[in-house]
Amino acid sequence: MDEQQFIEILDRYIAGTANAEEQAWLESAYINLNKKSFSVYDDGFLDAQTDQIWHVVANATQPPKKLTGLMPFIYAAAALLIVSLVAVLVYNQSHPKSYLTNLPAAKDIKAGRDKAVLILANGKRIDLDKTGTGYLADQTGVKISKTADGQVVYNMPQQIEQVEKPEYNTIQTPAGGQYQVNLPDGTKVWLNASSSVTFTTSFEVERRVKLKGEAYFEVSKISVDGKRIPFVVETQNQKVEVLGTHFNVNAYSDERTIKTTLLEGSVKVNDDVLLQPNQQARGNGSDIKVLSVNAQNFIDWKNGDFILENNDFRTIMRKIARWYDVEIVYSDDAPQKLNLGGWISRSKNISSILGVMEQTGKVHFNIEGRRITVTR
């Protein structure tokens, strides 16, 4: 199902002509959507509601079971629509429109995209977003290729060439870039903007990578003679050891702490802190605190979103700076905090997310080239 088909089903639902399966599908989407709270309203609020229902539908893995009680739902949906309209009207009457709404396209800034550089052991640099699919290089018998969907894949041969010392490769994303790589052991790595991961090309002796910035890992389980081989992620002030798991590491140099968030399995941080799913290790060096979190909120970037709810305003602005490759300048009266809710797609132009924040009436933005000035 694509978005146009979804809109057609929504139209049939409102007209009362949707079939039982379509009704159940939309009801399930509504129930899931209603778990979210939204504290920012603007002229695009109703469009955003539709976008967010579509977000739930598009990410569903299977059709939901048929639900009953359609008439109460129809009345609830109608009530939600009326409340939403009133909220928009009241809000817009009491708050001026954002100038970003009418920002000329030539001045707007597009979202980042898949963009990275592969640095081989001999120093050769391969611009991945400008390179075609297929074979890229050979590193000590390991074949490196680029797939049709843009991933870099390391294919291990059955017998690995013996080398005196390991050879290292690096995948590096610029500001405004992201990339996915499949490491020699089958581990999948998603790199966020302004990040890099360095690793040996064979993983014959050890599975160890060095990370700068942010990455999400899905680590494959490897055993030799019945013994699990650990996978280690090193950052400047933290070491994460795993056997096979899904986790995210945020180790940007401009963030106050390193955050390791576990989604599945278990990880050990700095040899002594053991995390369980939906826990996060936060700190630098030996000073580590463990927090209970909604882990999905910390991989919003991998899923193509900015989650605004329960996110520090300045942290959000740093994320925006990396993804849109812009400089953020704060005036003396710029707010330190801003209460926001919901999410917005990372695929939208920068004016969309800044415009939503402006609708709070507590912050304003001025776009000049790639510099964003923040004022109250």
Structure summary:
The chain is α+β, with helices and mostly antiparallel strands.
Give a written overview of the molecule.
The protein has 376 residues and is α+β, with helices and mostly antiparallel strands. The chain has three domains: 92 residues, no CATH class; 186 residues, Sandwich (Jelly Rolls); 72 residues, Phage tail protein beta-alpha-beta fold (3-Layer(bab) Sandwich). The protein is 23% helix and 31% strand. It is built from six helices and 26 strands. The protein has a 19-stranded mixed beta sheet that branches. Strand 5 and strand 6 form a beta hairpin. Helix 2 packs across helix 3.
How are the secondary structure elements laid out?
Layout (H helix, E strand, L loop, with lengths): L2 H13 L4 H14 L11 H14 L11 H25 L18 E2 L2 E3 L5 E3 L6 E6 L2 E5 L5 E4 L12 E5 L4 E6 L5 E4 L4 E5 L6 E12 L4 E2 L2 E2 L2 E4 L4 E4 L3 E6 L6 E7 L2 E3 L3 E3 L3 E6 L2 E6 L12 E3 L5 H12 L2 E4 L12 E3 L4 H9 L5 E5 L2 E5 L1
Helix pairs in contact: 2-3
The number of distinct structural domains comes to 3
The fraction of residues assigned to DSSP E strands is 25-35%
Helix content: 10-25%
Backbone structural class: alpha+beta
Major beta-sheet overview: 19 strands, mixed
The CATH level-2 architecture of the largest domain is identified as Sandwich
Number of strands: 26
Q: Which whole number gives the mean pLDDT?
A: 79
Return Rg in Å.
23 Å
Determine the N-to-C terminus distance. 42 Å
Task: Indicate the CATH class of the largest domain.
Answer: Mainly Beta
Shape: globular
Please report the number of helical segments: 6
Residue windows where pLDDT falls under 50 for at least 5 positions? 31-46, 60-76, 78-96
CATH-defined fold name of the largest domain: Jelly Rolls
